[in-house]
Specification:
Shape: globular
CATH topology: Deoxyribonuclease I, Chain A
Number of helices: 7
Helix content: 10-25%
Structural class: alpha+beta
CATH architecture: 4-Layer Sandwich
Distance between the termini: 35 Å
Number of domains: 1
Oligomer: single chain
Radius of gyration: 18 Å
Length: 302
């Protein structure tokens, strides 16, 4: 068994089905002071981003080599505490970790159970968050079977969740579940959403939960969205006190579409206060970091 005092990207990649690790409490005076003062201080905001990275192609006008510097500039400028990614390949994720070093680590498993295929990795700022446990499961009738797909989708689809301890909010814990629903089959999307709703219902109900991802479905216009909101989640874009301008979150390197479809969402359980939701249109000299726009939420966990 790996050292239970530290969850790393390598643990996430080796462990294909379930890894729930007990993390020791961090006896650092700074955190003790933070905990003691949490009753009178305003709770710190948590900045969350969901971003389909577009897998690291080596060819074409939007190759990873061309996009990486733009991605680096975007992420260094935003510095989210949680960065939930989709489509990332192992080498690509290592590049992002290197570009964000030294304060970020990530957890994820490839959808075929290895390190060469796409994952839904979750990056986190180690100065703010410590993972307590995590799991990857497959969106199928056999969620514990590596690479399984039973709903007509041509590719395996997965979800990864991490239970975090917030080191600057008195040790408060919460879950983040990240996914990438099927791009072609609506049946697979609805079944995947239903399975995610079932898994969320098994979490400790006293802890906040965030659900992030590329859902390949328009908010307010798809059964998958309705299923997740019916499970008690709220769309942070709708509940935010302040919002940026709305754009279609998939642009395919074409001109942006104002007031277009949001297929990338950040959902949250009741009690989460959303201060601002935004869609970043950052580019450099006409080059976008991905074929999706990242969606962000600045929030307080209850």
């Amino acid at each position: 068994m790996p050292d239970s005092s530290r969850v790393t990207r390598r643990v996430g990649l080796r462990t294909a089905v379930v890894t729930t690790l007990a993390m020791p409490l961090l006896a650092v005076p700074l955190f003790g002071t933070e905990s003691a003062s949490a009753t009178w201080r305003a709770r710190p905001r948590l900045d969350v981003m969901t971003f389909n990275l577009r897998y690291a192609s080596r060819v074409g006008p939007n190759s990873w080599k061309v996009r990486r510097p733009v991605m680096r500039e975007l992420l260094r400028g935003e510095t989210p505490h949680v960065l939930a990614t989709q489509e990332g390949l192992y080498r690509q994720l290592l590049d992002i970790e290197s570009d964000l070093a030294p304060h970020y680590e990530w957890i994820g498993t490839g959808r075929e159970g290895g390190s060469r295929d796409e994952s839904v990795a979750i990056f986190y700022d180690t100065r703010r968050l410590a993972p307590v446990g995590h799991e990857t499961f497959w969106l199928s009738d056999t969620p514990g079977v590596i690479g399984s797909r039973t709903w007509g989708n041509t590719l395996p689809r997965i979800a990864t969740w991490v239970r975090f301890r917030d080191l600057r909010d008195g040790g408060r814990e919460f879950h983040v579940l990240n996914t990438h629903l099927d791009h072609a089959k609506q049946y697979a999307r609805t079944r995947g959403a239903s399975l995610i709703a079932e898994r969320i219902a098994q979490f400790d109900a006293s802890l906040p939960c965030l659900v992030t991802g590329d859902f390949n479905a328009a908010a307010h216009g798809n059964a998958a969205y309705d299923i997740l909101l019916g499970a008690g989640l709220a769309d942070t874009w709708d509940t935010a006190a302040e919002r940026s301008r709305l754009y279609a979150t998939f642009h395919g390197y074409r001109p942006l579409t104002p007031d277009g479809e949001r297929i990338d969402w950040i959902l949250a359980t009741p009690g989460v206060t959303v201060h601002r939701a935004s869609i970043s249109t950052f580019s450099r000299n006409g080059q976008f970091p991905s074929d999706h726009l990242p969606v962000q939420a600045s929030l307080t966990l209850g």
